[in-house]
Specification:
The complex is a heterodimer of chains A (70) and B (325).
Chain A (H helix, E strand, L loop, with lengths): L9 H9 L4 H14 L10 H22 L2
Helix pairs in contact in A: 1-3, 2-3
Chain B lengths: L1 H23 L1 H12 L4 H31 L34 H15 L20 H9 L2 E4 L8 E4 L13 H7 L11 H4 L3 H10 L15 E2 L7 E2 L20 H16 L3 H34 L10
Antiparallel strand pairs in B: 1-2, 3-4
Helix pairs in contact in B: 1-2, 1-3, 4-9, 8-9
The chains are: A mainly alpha (70), B mainly alpha (325).
């Protein structure tokens, strides 16, 4: 019986591997974070940039993920 | 301020429209003169309606970009499910080593998926449209399924003495429900109702990909977004705040066949299981579709040929116009 803990989750692994491809949206997101730092009103948020970043990661991960799964 | 602009725009639009109409007929001109005085009037109302539609259309388009991203949820990516193709079915590959010319749902996949459902999801989610007998020949043998069914207790109808009794489950019984009714389910889950999963992949847009993305897509919320206590952030869930916590944790279950139970593996298996549960007829449907499209294409070719054959007499007529001196 293989120990589950030894095997890294495939999706997480691919997401980390795809990070270099998605640097641009990540930079946008970090820039947004900086912009809204210290905002007290609670209305400002970076959902748009976050979604762009996640979309990029997803597009990169999706075609490869199932090849790694049984 | 915006209202004043709109009113001025309106007046200008009305005037330009009115000059056009005046040119058309004297009747309309008379009508227009009558209408100018009153607030209503056919021509001005139409112009107003047109302009209103245009303005509201523009405004709604503007708001879509800003507020709706979180409300719609992040669009889920499309994963290459093995049963996706026009000729691909649920892989019945290796339960007895039977090879199929179609690529079907793996027995293993549905089997593992059912295991995930039973151990992780069944404590909150019902699947009240699926019976144990549906699993026979698809994920388990009859004996295995009977044994599985016998593990649950089922309430059964009045006996000869008129009393209700409980008995071990049979193949014909539905999957057990975790809660007696919706209210009990909501009460136990902070007001949220864990939906029945029997048809969930058909009940959500792009169901398979959506469910997989949702289950494996728990992330930290973006900067500026805070989720209240009791809810969890999931970008794929419309609105972003879902009541279900992340359930697929690496190593949460141990598969019978020894496959490492990572989050993505469990996600793939359970979504394959849910796809099968929602569309058990998928293989037969694809086979039938392929067969009938082929047959009807042949019939189309035959019909086209026959039509042209019969019409050729008329289509190859020659009409000669002759001038007689």
């Amino acid at each position: 019986m293989r120990a589950d803990e030894d095997v890294v989750d495939q999706k997480k692994y691919l997401e980390d591997a795809c990070k270099p491809k998605c640097v641009k949206p990540l930079i946008e997101y970090e820039a947004c974070k900086k912009r809204i730092e210290g905002d007290e009103s609670g209305h400002k948020h970076c959902t748009g940039q976050y979604f762009d970043y996640l979309s990029c990661i997803d597009k990169c991960v999706a075609p490869k993920l199932f090849a790694k799964l049984k | 301020m915006a209202g004043g602009v709109i009113i001025r725009l309106l007046k200008r639009k009305l005037q330009s429209q009115s000059t056009g109409f005046l040119a058309l007929s004297s009747y309309t001109a008379k009508k227009f003169h009558e209408d100018v005085g009153s607030a209503g009037g056919m021509k001005s109302l139409r112009a107003f309606a047109l302009l209103g539609a245009g303005v509201s259309g523009f405004l709604s388009f503007a708001t879509i970009a800003s507020a709706d991203e979180a409300e719609h949820g992040l669009a889920c990516p499309n994963y290459p499910w093995p049963h996706n193709g026009i000729l691909s079915s649920y892989d019945h590959a290796s339960f007895g080593g039977a090879a199929n010319y179609l690529k079907p749902f793996t027995w293993k996949l549905i089997r593992r998926g059912h295991q995930v459902y039973q151990q992780v999801c069944a404590s909150c989610h019902s699947m009240s449209l699926i019976s144990y007998r549906d699993l026979v020949g698809v994920a388990y043998t009859e004996e295995e399924t009977k044994a599985m069914a016998a593990e649950i207790e089922v309430d059964d109808g009045p006996n000869d003495e008129g009393e209700m009794f409980t008995r071990p489950g049979k193949l014909s019984d539905r999957f057990p429900q975790p809660y007696a009714n919706e209210q009990a389910a909501r009460f136990a889950n902070g007001g949220a109702y864990p939906p029945d999963l029997s048809l969930i992949t058909k009940a959500r847009h792009n169901g398979q990909n959506y469910v997989f993305a949702l289950l494996t897509g728990y992330h930290d919320p973006p900067a500026g977004v805070s989720i209240r206590e009791g809810l969890h952030y999931n970008p794929y869930f419309p609105g972003g705040a879902i009541a279900m916590p992340k359930m697929l944790i690496d190593g949460a279950i141990e598969y019978e066949d020894g496959t490492p139970a990572t989050e993505s593996q469990m996600g793939k298996d359970v979504v394959s299981f849910l796809s099968w549960a929602a569309e058990p007829e998928m293989e037969e449907r694809k086979l039938m579709g392929f067969k009938w499209i082929f047959v009807l294409s042949l019939a189309l070719l035959q019909a086209a040929y026959y039509r042209r054959l019969r019409w050729s007499v008329l289509k190859s007529r020659k009409l000669v116009l002759d001038v007689i001196n």
